[in-house]
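I have a small job for you when you get a moment. Can you supply me with one protein entry, sequence and fold together? It will help me judge whether the discrete encoding reads sensibly. Write everything out right here, beneath this request:
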Amino acid sequence: MTDATDHTPAIPTALSDPLLNHGVGFTEAEREALGLTGRRPTAVLTLEQQAESAYRQLQAQGDGLAKNVCLVQLYDRNETLYFRILRDHLAELLCIVYEPTVGEAIKRYSTSTVARAASSCPSTGLPASCDFVRYQ
């Protein structure tokens, strides 16, 4: 019988801490050392590749509010990638992460899918993926 304190946590810190999370950027050696083997897709992508993919997903969002939610979720998961996307597209995204989109998000929060998801999923506060966030 194993001691209850001698097990791999359900979600390793390297994945749950947005400052440490590299998404699919962890090398094979890092995955092995951090107990992430099998917890990430097998591909290892550079920060540049991850940023291109995340930016394409962001562009697929319907409006500024949906893009804001997507970016907030990214920030909560992987701060390095969040700031890389902002750095690469600052002129375009500044109005998404600041005014006027944030003001609109505050006004519409109570009627949004995000508010309903936050109240029904208090442990995370937001849906796991920005792909299905839609505003009424």
